Amino acid sequence: MDSKENIQSPSPRSQSDAMEQAPPKRKSVWSAKDRIIRLLWGTVGRAVWHCLPCFRISILRLFGGRVGKRCTIASSVEVTVPWNITMGDDSHIAEHVILYSLGTITLGNNVRIDTKAHLCAGSHDMRDTTFPLTRPPITVGDNSYIGIDAYIGPNVSLGNDTCVHARASVYKSFDDGVELQGNPARPLS
């Protein structure tokens, strides 16, 4: 008996069952209003953001961001969802910072975020085969510093007086007064 004869081809019934079990369609986490505002932000808002630096804070506020007194934001800062940003007084964000604010990003008073840092308040649920969007928050406490090219991951809360060194990657929360370094970030001893 030839080995090819032992191989069974799938029955027509099993092929149609496989076609009927297509993955479920994903539902958007954004309301119609959110989608319209994101479209406006992605076109008009960003154009004005880059062209009129003296109005940058006003533009962020116009799109729902909450910004304290005496804050500065560089023109090359990338803000994904402006209404999810909250900044305390005297906070400063340097050039080429990415605020991936699908979830809320809350900065306390006197927070400094240095060049090319990335705060990522959005991800996908990797345990679900449809990979639904998740929007966990990020919180940075008062008098904290995020160094050059540092990464702050989703659902991270950093206490007051925290210092994240250059290129550190923070994936979990830390209490007040911690100095973090490395990937994954660990407190300096």
Walk me through this protein's architecture.
This protein is α/β, with parallel strands linked by helices and about 190 residues long. It has a single domain, classed as UDP N-Acetylglucosamine Acyltransferase, domain 1. The protein is built from 4 helices and 19 strands. It has helices at about 5, 10-20, 30-50, 55-60, and strands spanning about 65, 70-75, 80, 85, 90-95, 100, 105, 110-115, 120, 125, 135, 140, 145, 150, 155-160, 165, 170, 180, 185. It has a 7-stranded mixed sheet, with no helix packed on it.
Overall number of strands: 19
Percent helix range: 10-25%
- Show unreliable segments: none
The first-level CATH class name: Mainly Beta
CATH superfamily: Hexapeptide repeat proteins
Second CATH tier, the architecture: 3 Solenoid
Q: Main sheet: which strands, in order across?
A: 2-5-8-13-16-18-19
**Computed structural class:** alpha/beta
Biggest beta-sheet profile: 7 strands, mixed
Tell me the number of structural domains: 1
Cα distance, first to last residue? 72 Å
On the 0-100 scale, what is the average pLDDT?
85
CATH topology: UDP N-Acetylglucosamine Acyltransferase, domain 1
Strand content: 15-25%
Short précis:
Helices cover 21% and strands 24% of the residues. The chain is an alpha/beta fold and 189 residues long.
List the helices and strands and how they pair.
Blueprint: H1 3-6, H2 12-20, H3 32-51, H4 56-62, E1 66-67, E2 72-73, E3 78-79, E4 85-87, E5 92-93, E6 98-100, E7 105-107, E8 112-113, E9 118-120, E10 123-124, E11 133-134, E12 138-140, E13 145-146, E14 151-152, E15 156-158, E16 163-164, E17 169-170, E18 179-181, E19 186-187
Parallel strand pairs: 1-4, 2-5, 3-6, 4-7, 5-8, 6-9, 7-12, 8-13, 9-14, 12-15, 13-16, 14-17, 16-18
Antiparallel strand pairs: 10-11, 18-19
